[in-house]
Amino acid sequence: MKIVADENLAFTDYFFAEFGEVEHKAGRTLTHADVAQAKALLVRSVTQVNPALLADTSLEYVGSATIGTDHLDIEAIEKRNIQWANAAGCNAQAVAEYVIAALLHLRPELLDAGQSFSLGIVGLGNVGSRLAAMAKLLGWSVIGYDPYVQLEGLQQSAFDELLAQADAVSIHVPLTQTGAHPTYHLINANALAEMKPEAILINSARGPVVAEADLIADIQRTRRRAVLDVFEHEPEISEELLSLISIVTPHIAGYSLEGKARGTQMIYEAFCKTFAKDAVKRFETQLPACAQYFQHQDLKTALQRHLKQIYDIAQDDQNLRACLKGGKVDQKAFDHLRKTYPLRREWAAHGGPKA
């Protein structure tokens, strides 16, 4: 069996090599010729799995080691009787920890803010619900908005009410353009005008959820602080945008070793179900030990003393800004940052809590 896999997936050979030849390819530039003879295709969000890629192939399975599916033409996949799977929730913990690290980098005093700080979470699926639980561990007030989800024990409000009340707004929705609640340009000029000027905006979901031109105009007017891990025109990122955003990172919010490995395991398990194989491997057996920063001290003390060692978000920001070339981020440099990213460990690996 020929298996084509994005070269940036974690532990691909560990999970799949026993089933056949695993061919590693650059996901963003994957072509029809690359997959024509493959029975299984393993991708990330940078690969558009569409009719042009799928036509006249031997594919029987497509697995995406990502939480989102907007890069998958599910109708086209199912029309060809190809089984598919994604990895919903695989990096939810990593993204939740990313958001908290970003907030504490911008405002270290939030460790002691307690209920006086209000975090608004838009989208209460795997990531949003995990973030809410982590924020409560820090004693913060949490407001949620999700027209499809009701979480017990969490204050939920209308979208405009959340925007008006929150001291920070973190986005955790899929990218949709149809239906009763489309998320494309959900954060636009009107939404930004509802927010307090001093409220922080964080987007680690999908770039086009935030209207870039509207955000630029808002920051120029209010000097709002914003954190972007994803961008509307990614990987094209303008120098103007970078100059205005407080923290920028190269779409790596979910890039923990555990999250990447968990994503591969989830599509491995779906693969085994598709091809009637026994799914007996677990990613935990492949993880190295790491420093135990949370031992013998409470959560706030550990974060105050060791947050930079756990995750140095400022370094990721500097690395992305260094990719500027000719007025915009160089696409090859952007992809190289992601390909060579030193996967961080989740708090639990350091002896800390998880939601």
What report would you give on this structure?
The strands form three sheets. Strands 8-7-6-9-10-11-12 form a seven-stranded parallel β-sheet, with helices on both faces. The protein has a five-stranded parallel β-sheet with strand order 2-1-3-4-5. A two-stranded antiparallel sheet has the order 13-14. The protein has 14 helices and 14 strands. 35% of the residues lie in helices and 14% in strands. α5 crosses α6. α1 links the parallel β1 (2-6) and β2 (21-25). The model has no long low-confidence stretch (mean pLDDT 96). The protein is globular and about 55 Å long. With 355 residues, it is α/β, with parallel strands linked by helices. The longest helix has 18 residues, at 257-274.
Describe the secondary-structure layout.
Elements: E1 2-6, H1 12-16, E2 21-25, H2 32-35, E3 40-43, H3 51-54, E4 61-64, H4 74-79, E5 83-86, H5 92-106, E6 118-122, H6 126-137, E7 141-145, E8 155-156, H7 159-165, E9 168-171, H8 189-194, E10 200-203, H9 212-222, E11 226-228, H10 239-244, E12 247-248, H11 257-274, H12 299-310, H13 313-321, E13 324-325, E14 328-329, H14 331-339
Parallel strand pairs: 1-2, 1-3, 3-4, 4-5, 6-7, 6-9, 7-8, 9-10, 10-11, 11-12
Antiparallel strand pairs: 13-14
Helix pairs in contact: 5-6
